[in-house]
Amino acid sequence: MPLWQLMVLALVQGVTEFLPISSSAHLILIPQVTGVADQGLLIDVAVHVGTLGAVIAYFRRDVAMLARGALEVARGRVDAPPARLVLLLALATLPVVVVGLALELADLTQMLRSVEVIGWATIVFAVVLWWADRQGGTGQTLEGWSIRQALILGLWQAVALIPGTSRSGACMTGARGLGFGRIEAARIATLMSIPTIIASGTLLLAEVATEGAWGALPQAGLAALMAFGAALVALALMMRVLDRIGFGPFVLYRLAMGGAILVWVYV
Question: Domain map of the chain by residue range?
Answer without folding.
Answer: 3-259
